[in-house]
Each structure stands twice: as structure tokens, then as C-alpha cells.
């Protein structure tokens, strides 16, 4: 991991009239950092990504790429940024090859090298056989992949991806995760916004939680996962058969909170130490609760996200 | 990135989207075949009048040339830009290291390539028909050059309009349609427009039989077209660079006003040189001055509102201690002073000084300063709360510029006695009516109106003063990430 700051945002504000979509976000990312942005719909993730890409004019604040301020109209720093929106814009009437050739020309990549890169990236996003198909004839997932190829073809230093795996099938998502890890290892800075927290825990180095335009939490995946007081954790209890009055039984056993019951499966919060877990299990068996499985969940992103008490936007 | 396709990516894509060479070559062959066959058949059926038939075709081909370059070219251009804007491809382009000038040139070149190719075929066919009609090749080529330069001028306007809200393309229709539908009336009262259009409508390039020598007015018109085209090109570059930038900032807006004042001045002073031969009606110079000044005032809104926007943005950045501070904008007084000077410069055009000119100029200056100041403070008040002042401006102009004229119009229409003056002091309460009174040598009637206009101008000033921020805000705290770091 490089120590040089590649992307720096200093007090970035984006306002639309009286509404502040992004409020004073500051962050610093170094080569090899992969920041996952999570937050409810309307939290400002997309606007922040667009502001970091220099596409959304900021009301206040400045973004630096390798120390160079991202000023509208000055293209040198922008060329180092790759940005894929949730629905990548493309020329529908062009074939995949024509579109990527256009990108090559736009980034002044010599034609021979452009052809090599087109072949390389189409292979990486599993679209080699669709090279001469018109973009309008591609499925949503395939377009998403072309969008990713478009972003990566000019070899950007900073890669910003907004909901990149939304249109991908399960196999595509696995391959996409590998691609992200690969890019991270190349020393690029990546910011990915997504709602699939399980995936993000696997490939991100850092997580940022956004709410109402603010970056309310940011840290490494471990730091974020273990955020909270650490005295409680979530347990899953699977019953062999439905047990009448299970909620009342649990209420008798001590400070159990946030109980969620689904016929034979329960989740709840209780003390986090192993002794407390053992004591609870013993009490359940003593009260003849038909326990088929009892699991203490490891602290995860989902848990941390719920604990962050992020307000949903109506 | 080079300026021209195929190396210019945007130009290449715009051409490729219309089918590229694969569609263009068959189109050219088909077009040449249809026109060629039609010409041959008409000559075949009228062998006695071969010269006349060829002359007719030469004129028709020049008209087709104009339609191809102007109508087809402009519509392709605007559509291409709008499509890229709505599909957000423009944002993808903005990430490329493409200089704005190259991007705008790419849109122009790529969007019009098919039209240019068709025009080239028309030019070649026309060279043969011109020869058949005993028209020299130079004459045919010159006519094409005039049409082509006019088309380039309109393309620059079209490319700028493409970046503006829908409906801005109407500027082109204003320029093209006015001479057609206005039957010379609008051109007669706006000599500046006549100067711009003179190569197409004056001693016309379409009259092949007439003895024709290139007049000096062509050079003046081409210079004016290049100036206005250049402003629009730079405006398009600004909009390409930054979506929230005003198309014409203060400097470009003042440059546009300078251009209008310049063409109006030349047009009024040399009216007989620029006047189209077919425009027989007598034009009162005072009417020309009045109309040109009113259009100039409308143009002056661009730099004045841009000055208001820049001031508000700058103050906001200063108040919030922005880490990326903006450049200090030009003081509003200077902008209004320059704009007023340019507007009243039009009145100095006549070779013979109108009666009581100094008094008229002084009153005109008062009206212009009051109107533009009101607009400046109205815009500033709007930009403080919202990102656009368009709606407020529209209402303001309607109520303060047009309503006084409407009231007088109604008063006149409903008066039983037709001896009532159509314009009274009520019209003078708005800039349009005041200008008509002042330049109609009816100064007395503008007195009360000017006082009322100054009072009206105080309203936005008071609104702006009452809503101004009272003190600077403290610097916002660093974001969570920086704190964590």
C-alpha cells in the first residue's frame, strides 16, 4: 500500500438550491485503498462520487488528485479518474468495439494500443464474444460490464464505481470482486458504492457510512464492523419445531433485546462474551426450548450499519 | 486531440452515429444520381432552352446547398448535443482529456459531416450546370463560399444553443425566419441584423445573371459573423466545461453587446449600402435607433445577470471560507457602466445628428442604468436563494417593460375619441415606451416615466438589501474522515 495520498477531498459541499446533498465531506485515500460507501437511498453517495469525479460542481470545497486540484475545465487531473455511474451512458447505435475505440481516441491512446486494451478489458469483463454487437442489443448486466471496461480502459489512478454490481449475475459478481481486488493490488484508489454489504466486506479495505449527506462513519472494514460498545452481539436461534410463548420465555432470561421471530428462527441481541452465550444456551435447554441450532454472529458490516442508526430517507 | 475527425473522438462518434462512411457513401451516390438524372431529363426535354434550364438548376442547387448546410447541419448539431446531454454521455466526455475547443469543434465537424459531403456533391454538380448556363466557375464558387461561411456562423450559434435549455435553438430561427416572414420590416428596423444577413439577402449571391462585384459590405458582414460566431463558440466551450456556468459570463456578455452595438452602428450609418435591393420602404433612422437600443438592452441582461450570479457565488465562498476561493468578480457598477456606454453608443451612428441628440442620449442613459440596475439586484436577490433567475426575470420584464405599453394600448383601443395619443406617460414608465418617446422627439412625455422607472428600480435594490447576509459564517468543521485521520 502506497503512502502517497492519491485522492483528497477537503470540505466538499454540494447544494441543490436549499437542499444540501453532500455536507462537508473530507477524506484522504492512498494507493491500494478501496473505500466502500454505504448508506440509505438518498444519502448522497452518488452525488459525492460525481463530485469526486469533478462532474458535479461543488458548492464549496475542493478535490485533489495526486495533489492537483480538480478545477472545472482543467482536464489533466480528470483524465486520471474513471467513473462508472449506476447506468453507464453509451452510444446505443455503436458496437462495443466502436464505442471503446471512441474512448481510446478520446484518451488519445494510439490505435494499436487501443485495440490491445479493448481485447484485454473485454476479456476481463467477459464480453469478448459481444465485441461486434450493438450496445442497444446488450442486456443490462452486459452494459454494466461495458461501462466498467470503458472506465478502466484509460488506466485511471482513481476508480469510482456507483452500484457496479447491481446488474450483474451471481457469477459476474464473483468475477467482479476478483477484478476489484486485482485493481486494488495494482495500487489504484477505488471507491465503490453498493447496498450489498456482504460483498463489500470481502473486497473493501475501508468503509464509509453516509447519512443525510454526511460521512457519519469511516474507517477500515474491521474498525467499522466492530463499531459499537462491544458488550452485545446478535444471536440466531433455530428451533426444531414452533414453541409457544418463546418470546415470553426469552424475556424471562435476562436483558435480551431486538427479538425478531420467524416461526422457527429467532434473532436477538444479548451479551457478547462466550460465558454469557453458554449460560443463555443452558437456560434455554433447561426450559425445554427445542434448540436445533444456536449461533453467535460475528460482528459484521450489516450489524455495524444497523448500529450506526442511519436514518432512512423518505 | 486534433480538431478534425477521424482523430477528433467526438467528431468521429457523431459521424459514426449517423452510419459513418457505410451509410454516407451510398447516400451520396443516390443523391448525385437523383439530381443528375433530374437535370439530364430536364435538359433533354427542353433542348432549346438549355441555358435557362441550367440557370434554373444552378439557382435551385444553391438553394438546396443552403438548406443542407443551414437547416440540416444546424438540426443535426443541436440534436447531437442534446442527446449527449440527456443520456449523460456528455459527462463521460468531460472525463476525457479533451480540450473544450476540440470537443465543440468535434460536435460541429461530426454533426455536419454528412451535410458537408452532400453539399460538396451539390457543388460539383452545380459547377456543371453553371457552365451550361454560362456562369463562371468563380461566380459559382463565390456563391458557395458565402453560403458556407453563413452556415458556419449559424453552426456556432446552433452548437451554443445545444448546450442551453430547450428552446434556445429559436435564436437560429429568429435569424433565418425574420427576413422570410417579416417581409423586410424587422430587417428595416434592425440594421444590425441586416448587416449580419447582408451577403444572403443584400446584393444577393442567388442572382447569377446580375452583374456582380463583391461589395465591401461582404467583408463587414463576414467579420461580424466571425465575431458573433466566435462568442457562441466560446460560450459552448464554457458550457461544455462546466454545466452550471452561465453560457455567457460578464466578459462574453459585454462582448456580445459590443458586437450588437457595432453592427447596429455600422448598419444605421451605412444603411443605403446594406439595405437589400428589394426593401423599398423608407426607414426612419430614429425608429432604427430605438429598436436597436431595445435589443441592446435585452442583450445587456446577459452580462448583468452573470455579474449578479458571480457576485453571489463569490460572497458565499468567502463567507464559508472555501478552501478553493473564487476570483473576485467585476464590480456591478462597472458592468452596468460599460453596458450603458455600449447601448447608448448606437445613438451616435447617424451621420446627421438628430434633433436634441444630447438630451436624448442623457435620458436614454438614465433609462438604461435604471433598468439594468433593477435587473442586477433582482437577479442577485434570486441567486441568493435559488439557482436560476429566469422566471423572476421574465415576470419582471413583462410587468415593467411590457405592461405599461399594454395599458396604453388598451387605453387607446377603448377610447371613443381616436385623437387620443397612442403613447402617453404610462408607456414611458417602461423602458420600451420611454425609448419610443425619447427618440420620437417627445422628451416631455418621458419625464414622469423616468422618475417612475427609478422608483421601480429601487424595489429589487431594497429586496436585495433586506435579505443580504448580516455577518460571515464560521468555517465549517472538517468532515468525519479528516477528524478520524
Main attributes of the structure:
heterodimer, A: 314 residues, alpha/beta, six-stranded mixed sheet, four-stranded antiparallel sheet, 11 helices, 33% helix, 29% strand, B: 485 residues, mainly alpha, 19 helices, globular, disordered C terminus
List the helices and strands and how they pair.
The complex is a heterodimer of chains A (314) and B (485).
Chain A: E1 5-16, E2 19-30, E3 34-38, H1 45-52, E4 60-65, E5 68-69, H2 75-78, E6 81-84, H3 96-106, H4 111-124, H5 140-152, E7 158-162, H6 170-185, E8 189-193, H7 197-203, E9 206-211, E10 214-220, H8 221-225, E11 232-239, H9 246-252, E12 257-262, E13 265-271, H10 274-286, E14 291-296, H11 301-307
Parallel strand pairs in A: 3-8, 3-9, 6-7, 7-8
Antiparallel strand pairs in A: 1-2, 1-4, 4-5, 9-10, 11-13, 11-14, 12-13
Helix pairs in contact in A: 3-4, 4-5
Chain B: H1 9-17, H2 20-45, H3 50-86, H4 89-94, H5 100-132, H6 137-163, H7 170-181, H8 185-189, H9 191-201, H10 216-241, H11 250-269, H12 271-274, H13 285-319, H14 332-345, H15 357-385, H16 390-414, H17 431-439, H18 443-467, H19 480-484
Helix pairs in contact in B: 1-5, 2-3, 2-5, 3-5, 3-6, 5-6, 5-10, 6-10, 9-10, 9-11, 10-11, 11-13, 11-14, 13-14, 13-15, 13-17, 14-15, 15-17, 15-18, 17-18
> What fraction of the residues of chain B are assigned to beta strands by DSSP?
under 5%
Q: Quick one: overall form of chain B?
A: globular
How helical, in percent, are the residues of chain B? over 70%
How would you sum up the global shape of chain A?
A: elongated
Low-confidence stretches of chain A: none
Query: First CA to last CA of chain A: what distance?
Result: 40 Å
What structural category characterises the helix and strand content of chain B?
mainly alpha
Instruction: Flag low-confidence runs of chain B.
Output: 473-485
**Strand order in the largest sheet of chain A:** 6-7-8-3-9-10
Mean of all residue-level pLDDT scores of chain A: 86
Chains forming the largest contact? A-B, 56 and 46 residues
Amino acid at each position: 500500500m502506497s503512502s502517497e495520498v492519491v485522492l483528497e477531498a477537503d470540505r466538499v459541499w454540494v447544494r441543490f438550491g436549499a437542499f444540501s446533498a453532500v455536507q462537508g465531506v473530507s477524506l484522504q485515500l492512498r494507493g491500494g485503498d478501496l473505500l466502500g460507501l454505504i448508506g440509505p437511498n438518498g444519502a448522497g453517495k452518488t452525488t459525492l462520487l460525481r463530485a469526486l469525479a469533478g462532474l458535479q460542481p461543488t458548492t464549496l470545497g475542493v478535490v485533489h488528485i495526486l495533489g492537483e486540484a480538480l478545477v472545472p475545465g482543467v482536464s489533466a487531473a480528470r483524465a486520471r479518474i474513471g467513473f462508472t455511474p449506476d447506468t453507464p451512458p453509451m452510444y446505443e447505435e455503436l458496437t462495443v468495439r466502436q464505442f471503446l475505440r471512441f474512448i481510446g481516441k478520446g484518451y488519445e491512446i494510439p490505435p494499436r494500443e487501443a485495440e490491445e486494451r479493448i481485447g484485454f478489458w473485454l476479456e476481463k469483463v467477459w464480453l469478448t464474444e459481444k465485441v461486434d454487437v450493438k450496445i442497444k442489443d446488450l442486456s443490462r448486466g452486459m452494459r454494466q460490464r461495458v461501462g466498467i471496461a470503458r472506465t478502466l480502459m484509460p488506466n485511471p489512478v482513481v476508480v469510482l464505481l456507483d452500484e457496479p454490481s447491481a446488474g450483474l449475475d451471481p457469477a459476474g459478481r464473483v468475477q467482479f470482486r476478483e477484478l476489484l481486488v486485482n485493481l486494488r493490488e495494482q495500487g489504484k484508489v477505488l471507491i465503490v458504492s453498493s447496498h450489498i454489504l456482504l460483498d463489500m466486506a470481502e473486497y473493501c479495505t475501508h468503509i464509509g457510512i453516509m447519512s443525510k449527506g454526511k460521512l457519519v462513519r469511516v474507517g477500515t472494514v474491521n474498525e467499522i464492523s466492530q463499531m459499537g460498545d462491544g458488550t452485545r452481539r446478535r444471536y440466531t436461534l433455530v428451533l426444531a419445531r414452533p414453541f409457544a410463548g418463546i418470546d415470553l420465555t426469552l424475556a424471562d432470561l435476562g436483558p435480551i433485546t431486538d427479538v425478531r421471530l420467524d416461526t422457527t428462527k429467532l434473532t436477538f441481541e444479548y451479551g457478547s462474551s462466550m460465558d454469557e452465550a453458554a449460560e443463555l444456551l443452558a437456560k434455554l435447554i433447561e426450559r425445554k426450548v427445542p434448540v436445533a441450532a444456536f449461533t453467535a454472529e460475528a460482528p459484521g458490516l450489516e450489524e455495524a450499519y444497523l448500529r450506526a442508526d442511519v436514518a432512512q430517507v423518505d | 486531440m486534433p480538431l478534425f475527425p477521424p482523430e477528433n473522438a467526438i467528431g468521429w462518434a457523431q459521424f459514426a452515429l449517423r452510419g459513418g462512411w457505410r451509410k454516407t457513401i451510398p447516400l451520396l451516390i443516390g443523391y448525385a444520381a437523383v439530381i443528375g438524372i433530374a437535370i439530364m431529363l430536364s435538359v433533354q426535354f427542353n433542348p432549346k432552352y438549355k441555358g435557362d434550364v441550367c440557370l434554373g438548376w444552378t439557382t435551385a442547387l444553391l438553394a438546396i446547398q443552403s438548406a443542407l448546410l443551414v437547416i440540416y447541419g444546424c438540426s443535426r448539431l443541436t440534436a447531437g448535443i442534446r442527446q449527449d446531454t440527456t443520456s449523460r454521455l456528455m459527462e463521460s466526455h468531460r472525463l476525457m482529456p479533451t480540450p473544450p475547443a476540440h470537443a465543440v469543434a468535434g460536435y460541429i465537424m461530426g454533426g455536419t459531416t454528412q451535410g458537408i459531403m452532400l453539399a460538396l456533391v451539390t457543388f460539383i454538380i452545380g459547377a456543371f450546370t453553371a457552365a451550361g448556363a454560362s456562369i463562371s466557375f468563380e461566380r459559382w464558387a463565390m456563391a458557395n463560399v458565402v453560403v458556407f461561411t453563413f452556415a458556419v456562423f449559424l453552426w456556432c450559434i446552433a452548437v451554443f444553443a445545444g448546450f442551453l435549455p430547450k428552446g434556445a435553438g429559436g435564436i437560429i430561427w429568429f435569424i433565418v425566419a425574420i427576413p422570410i416572414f417579416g417581409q423586410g420590416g424587422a430587417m428595416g428596423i434592425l440594421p444590425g441584423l441586416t448587416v449580419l444577413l447582408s451577403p444572403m439577402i443584400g446584393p444577393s449571391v442567388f442572382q447569377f445573371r446580375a452583374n456582380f462585384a463583391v461589395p465591401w459590405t461582404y467583408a463587414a458582414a463576414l467579420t461580424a459573423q466571425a465575431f458573433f460566431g466566435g462568442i457562441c463558440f466560446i460560450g459552448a466551450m464554457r458550457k461544455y466545461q462546466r454545466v452550471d456556468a452561465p453560457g455567457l459570463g460578464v466578459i462574453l456578455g459585454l462582448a456580445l453587446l459590443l458586437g450588437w452595438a457595432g453592427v447596429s452602428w455600422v448598419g444605421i450609418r451605412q444603411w443605403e449600402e446594406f439595405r437589400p435591393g428589394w426593401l423599398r420602404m423608407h426607414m426612419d433612422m430614429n425608429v432604427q435607433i430605438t429598436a436597436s437600443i431595445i435589443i441592446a438592452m435585452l442583450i445587456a441582461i446577459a452580462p448583468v445577470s452573470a455579474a449578479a450570479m458571480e457576485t453571489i457565488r463569490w460572497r458565499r465562498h468567502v463567507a464559508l471560507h472555501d478552501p478553493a476561493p473564487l476570483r473576485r468578480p467585476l464590480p456591478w457598477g462597472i458592468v452596468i457602466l460599460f453596458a450603458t456606454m455600449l447601448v447608448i453608443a448606437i445613438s451616435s451612428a447617424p451621420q446627421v445628428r438628430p434633433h436634441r441628440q444630447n438630451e436624448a442620449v442623457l435620458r436614454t442613459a438614465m433609462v438604461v442604468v435604471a433598468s439594468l440596475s433593477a435587473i442586477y439586484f433582482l437577479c442577485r436577490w434570486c441567486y441568493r436563494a435559488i439557482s436560476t433567475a429566469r422566471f423572476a426575470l421574465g415576470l419582471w420584464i413583462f410587468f415593467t417593460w411590457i405592461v405599461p405599453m399594454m395599458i396604453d394600448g388598451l387605453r387607446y383601443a377603448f377610447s371613443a375619441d381616436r385623437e387620443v395619443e397612442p403613447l402617453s406617460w404610462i408607456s414611458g414608465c417602461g423602458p420600451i415606451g420611454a425609448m419610443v418617446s425619447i427618440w420620437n422627439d417627445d422628451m416631455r412625455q418621458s419625464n414622469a416615466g423616468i422618475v417612475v422607472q427609478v422608483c421601480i428600480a429601487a424595489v429589487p435594490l431594497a429586496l436585495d438589501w433586506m435579505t443580504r447576509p448580516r455577518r460571515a459564517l464560521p468555517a465549517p468543521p472538517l468532515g468525519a474522515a479528516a477528524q478520524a485521520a
